[in-house]
Amino acid sequence: MCGISGIISxxxxxxxxxxxMNQTIHHRGPxxxxxVFFDNSLRPVTSGSNDTAEDSWISDFHYSPKLKIEEVxxxxxxxxxxxxxxxxxxxxxxxxxxCDDKEELWITYNGEVYNxxxxxxxxxxxxxxxxxxxxxxxxxxxxxxxxxxxxxRFMGMFAIAILDVKNxxxxxxxxxxxIKPL
Length: 182
Description:
Elements: E1 3-8, H1 15-23, E2 32-38, E3 44-48, H2 54-58, E4 67-68, E5 78-84, E6 98-99, E7 105-113, H3 116-125, H4 135-146, E8 156-164, E9 169-174
């Protein structure tokens, strides 16, 4: 049971209010916390707090936190946050918000896609490679391959927010029964 948060603003994101929003869902994910902020040019700035797992700070993933949340300025229009309850892939590879290797797709996600191993295998036959064992990375690759039709393949319970930097779109979805809040 993780927790996700996000803001898209015409002006600027109130970073302190956003941090408070993410803190209110601490109970949903006590194992890790992460943030990513985007300015007008959609350049990502990854950040973490005192609740960010120590391993996440020292990992080499594109989405690993680079700045302490106190160092983030107010010049951002989009913010994504995540509270993690570590269940699958307990390593820093599961830190979120997560991105693809080109930093074009960013995801914050709550839930579990039960058939992600089968989907991963299919995506590998289509040429996708993976650097983690998370279902989150499989969701990103599935979205890259099939767009919103990826939902037709997912069996599970989930709430997903994907920012497509290249196409300047946001994709929001949740499972068919609405088990996970969005």
